[in-house]
Each structure stands twice: as C-alpha cells, then as structure tokens.
Amino acid sequence: MEQKSIKEVHNELTMHSVRFAKDEQGRRKEQEVLFKWPEVQKKLGEHKHIYVVDARLGSNNHTHRLWYDVIPPHTEEGQDWRTLGHRHTVEAIIYFLQGKGHSIIDGVRYDWQAGDLLSVPMFSWHRHINDGDEPVLRIASTTGPLSLGLGQAVYEDERYPEFWIYAQEGEDARKTLIPGGGGQVGNGQVGGNRAAEMYAEQVAFAMHEEQLRRKSKVLVKQKDLVFEPTAMGNLAYVVDPRIGFHSKALGVVMAEIPPGKRSGAHRHLYDEIDLVVGGRGKVIVEDKEFEFDTLDVLSIPVFQWHQYFNTGTEPLRILGINTRLALDNLGLSLTHQGEHADYVE
Asked: Which CATH fold would you assign to the domain 35-149?
C-alpha cells in the first residue's frame, strides 16, 4: 500500500473540517426521529435499563442521551448499593412516569411520585429507592456524550470501586462535588497585581462551583409547574438557571397543546429529545411527518424546522430536554421562530 505524503495527510485533515458541516447536514436528514413506546416496553421486559437515544446506538445526538428504566417494588435502583450509590461528571435529569419513592442526593432525601422531576447536581452521590407496591417507570437524560467528547466522563459507582478515580483517596474525596477536590479558595493568592488576581480566581473556581451546586434546586413537583403563553404555545420552564438551577448544559421545558391545536414552529442549533408525557399527535420535521402517542420519544435534528400538532381529544404534554445551555455557554446558541402557536395571542 502506497504511503501518503505529508501534504496529502494534512490536506485530508483540513478537508475533514471543511466538509464536516455539510456532511452533518446529511446525517441530520437521515437520523432516526421517532422511538415508539411499545418497542421500548418490549425491551424492558428483557432488561430493566434500555437506552433509547444514544450516539453509541447510531443516534445523531452529540451532547446528551436518553434511556428508560424500571425499579421493581420496594427495591433500590442499584440493588447492591448500601450508602453511596453513584456519581458522575455529567448533568442528569430524571422524570418519573409511574410509581413513588425517594432519592438520596448529596445526603439529602427527596420524595417523589409520578410527574415529578429531579435535576441531579453534577458529581453528587445519589441513590433512588422505590417505596411503592408497583414498579417505578422513569426516563433519564444525561450529558454523557458531551463529557465523553471532552475526555471528562467520570462515573464512580459504589458497586465497582476498582474503577474509582477519586473516591478511593479518602473521605474528603468522597464528599466533594468536584472531581479531585475543590482545594482552598485562598491557595492561589500572591502579590497584588491583576495577573495574580486572575490566577487566584482560576484556583478558586472549583470551590465556588461546588458551593453553587449545593445551593441548586433539585426537585420539581408536577403540581408546581406554571404554564404561560409564548410564541411556541403554553410552556412551563422546568429546569433553567434563571429559576434557581445550577445547570450548565441541560435545560427542560414542558409544552402543553390543547386538542385540535398546534404549537409554533422553530429551529435551533442545540440537541433536543422529547418525551410525550400525555396525549397523542404528530410532529412535522422539515418535510417529514411523524405520528406519536403517549410515552413515545422524539429526537429532533439540530437546526431543522419542527412543529407539533395535537390530533387527540386530550391535552398534549411534551417534556423537552435540550442542551441549549451548553450552546449558550459556548456562544453558539441560536433559535429561529417561525409560525406562532394558533391558541395564544
């Protein structure tokens, strides 16, 4: 086999970057959008944890994933967990569809039931226990793909201490919400010049970040959701930094569409995964139409126009989990609004 010249190798690297956006457009057009609940339900009969939208399964989602799982009655999610549970350097959203129970997150107990949601602070130990007589059915979405891409995906699980990276270093390392520990706020302070101040801020960042994570809201009760009219229709912001959550990547909204009505149309540069919480309808994505029912999952392609229609007789509720915040922090967030919803003024 003829060896490529230095010029050929590096020209190929350049063209990989040049071609990427065009190639990505093609991948978006071909990506799987609709994941039907009956198919997922069948798989859950064989295994209690089923990935639905995941790049490792061929999904064209670069920043987050979604899975379904089941916790049997009166048991814990990880049945060998005793004290810690697990923690990870990914943001996580958990939405409960059936059952009731409680979670221990960073040492605090949160009681939940169907319709409630948890926003788990990054790198906090957490456990989930089913307190009821029926199985708990839930979905979870995390920024695993984003952390993997950054080379910063750390998953520490009480059941697998041989894979711990930090927790084995002692009690302080197990208590901190910062991989490797936050250090001391004043450790970087020397002199009185601007460069010294800037470096001291860098050293102190992790400790301040840990404090903000511990102040973050965690539990959202379904009864507390407030729907208000927007160009896209009636929306309730569920997880967002502007309402008390220390989230840097994952945001959550709930949309509600009356029977026979439609949402607004928009497109955006962030990944979005939708769970149909209740009702039935259809979504038009560019020139394709997909009919969905309760518990189906939608993976909306980046920067493609999409609009939702309630074709049923009951209110349609859709939980939208997106990575707009990650794009905001990168300065890449963009949303274009098209037609407005037909039921708001």
From this structure: Jelly Rolls (2.60.120)
